[in-house]
Design a protein that fits this description.
By secondary structure, this protein is an all-alpha fold. The protein has 6 helices and no strands. The longest helix is centred in the middle third of the chain and has 18 residues.
């Protein structure tokens, strides 16, 4: 497999020599600020950027994302399924609260409010 990396490096070097990268937008400009630098210690920024670019989320943010998805499901769920979804949402909120992330919890009535908004938009 090393030969694939070697071939790619050669092609990139050839394109660079031929000037293929000379007119790219943003050439010479700093990378856009995505806000991560201000919140992460300098010695951890590269690792955080790699994780962010690969789609990794810390567990508490994964739980928050799952809680929001559950709330979206609750907004359109049938009555028979709602108790199970509410229990899953409550479990995720307990996990988030246990980790000290109170601001990340999703209120149980969020799904009802979301359902009202969806219903109102459908009527328009």
């Amino acid at each position: 497999m090393w030969w694939i990396a070697e071939l790619a490096e050669r092609r990139i070097a050839e394109a660079q020599r031929d000037g293929a990268f000379d007119n790219l937008p943003g050439l010479g400009a700093p990378l856009p600020d995505d806000g991560i630098d201000a919140l992460v210690p300098e010695h951890q920024r590269l690792a955080y950027r790699v994780l962010k670019n690969s789609g990794y989320l810390p567990p508490e943010l994964e739980n928050h994302r799952d809680a929001v998805e559950l709330a979206l499901l609750l907004a359109t769920a049938e009555a028979a399924v709602r108790p199970m979804l509410l229990e899953r949402l409550a479990r995720l909120n307990r996990l988030l609260e246990h980790g000290g992330h109170h601001a990340l919890t999703v209120p149980a009535d969020y799904a009802d409010k979301l359902g009202e908004c969806i219903a109102a938009r459908r009527q328009q």
